[in-house]
Amino acid sequence: MKQAEFDGKGNCVRWTETPGAEPARVYVHGLGATSAVYHAHVAARPELAGRRSLFVDLPGHGISDRPEDFGYTLVDHADALAAALDAAGVTGAELVGHSMGGSVAIVLALRRPDLVSRLVLTEANLDALPPVTAGSSGIASYEEDAFVDGGHARVLEQVGPLWAATMRLADPRALHRSAVGLRKGSDPVMRTVLEGLTVERVYVQGERSGELEGRETLEAAGVRVVTAAGAGHNVMFDNPDAFVAAVLGGGRG
To answer: What is the pTM (predicted TM-score) of this model?
Structure first.
């Protein structure tokens, strides 16, 4: 485990990593998740092995610190991720981001283009105000103190055992602020940023999640959209073969 201070107050973002060839692959988890749990099993696949791989837990999540006076916006998370990559000596990385982690990766690519050479986004949030069915919407529907004082426990009972296993590791206040920040989105919004980037961009959509909104516009902007057959939001669990192919750059679904 390695760490880097991210807020000027001694709080640290932490990650684990495996050695290998550059450029590094940096795996970034979604809301209420952790990176190693969602990505280590695919990073270890023979097709992806041999590359330096970092599994970063964003502030408030997993093994990273969770300061009460931190904002946990997308920009805040992106800057904390930048602090980790700077400390690790990483430049020109391939960022593999899931859900909120994909949104953070997009913001990072805008703010620190030196750190990013390629984006692989799995069902990343691209727009502000996602539908009420989104996990962030349910969390953000609570007032912050109400979520901390009982809402977190209720949400854990509702989300199912897989998500709850990592969500229970997230600080409730940090989780709520992260959800609120995700719903607010970035300025400019993530979709606009993604369309304007010039690095290679791959967007992975689970077939069970339905058609990706604005797919034609994304593709016209040079984003390669891959639909993973039989997969839902967690493509890396539901169809790891398609996920690995997308990371490698293939079009297999």
So the answer is: 0.97
